[in-house]
TrEMBL record:
It is a peripheral membrane protein. SMART domains: AAA. Pfam families: ABC_tran. The keyword Nucleotide-binding applies. It comes from Streptomyces spongiae. It is found in: Cell membrane. It comes from the Bacteria. The lineage of its organism: Bacteria, Bacillati, Actinomycetota, Actinomycetes, Kitasatosporales. This is Amino acid ABC transporter ATP-binding protein. Belongs to the ABC transporter superfamily. Keywords: Amino-acid transport, ATP-binding, Cell membrane, Membrane, Nucleotide-binding, Transport.
Amino acid sequence: MPEAETEAAPRTPDAPAAALQVKGLSKSYGSNTVVCEVTLDVQRGETLCLIGPSGSGKSTLLKCLNLLETPDCGEIWLGETCLTAPHADVDAARSRIGMVFQHFNLFPHMSVERNVTLGLTSVKGMGREQAREIARLRLKEVGLGAFADQRPGRLSGGQQQRVAIARALAMEPEVMLFDEATSALDPELVKDVLAVMRDLASGGMTMAVVTHEMGFAREAADRVAFMCDGRLAEIGTPDRIFESAEHPRLRQFLSQIL
Ligand code: ADP
Ligand code: MG
């Protein structure tokens, strides 16, 4: 029977598709190459922590991942979508990636709830009532169900950061990126934000987390990647990275902060 021969090759069943793949990514500012040929992947449900000295290119790498910065070369794949393809739909891609920054940038004149619904109504075109329901649910998840009607200015920095996380989650992203989400917070406010991030990680969210919180990296990360001078210098399980680091710069980095 000739039909069998003309059929398309079957897809590999349940291929372990990475949620996010970065291949040979580089980014320079002028003559300064700040991200240099980085190749890495984040598997579905995985939490990858990115650590490294200040200026090593962690933030730039993260910004490239959701195209806030344009890479000079290399590829970024979100599932089966190539974000760096010439005609990639950047807005569509971005809406699949949630990002939480050090500075949460909530709109001060809007209620906490409206801050969370804004992306749903304006970007996704969702009706106000449905958006409110989602916002209430997400705010509850980050422990702020009772604060929906408040202005962000009435909340602590840690609470505001949790609103920012709820805002990102409301969009149902496939991947969450965190860039030093706790670095601007007073020490006593850090733990509640980390607890939310831990819950997300153990709940199966796919996450790439730039952090200086080594306790978090040790406990919540599936793998830890060390960046140094724009390069991915070492990557491995938390045990490997923290107990038997190979790269001299990683050993030095850890000896300074642990
Ligand atoms: P990290 O997040 O690891 O501290 P960054 O990615 O912020 O590192 O920065 C890496 C390097 O790139 C630094 O030397 C920084 O000064 C430089 N850099 C970052 N953003 C810009 C920019 N917009 N223009 C020029 N240089 C930049
Ligand atoms: Mg940074």
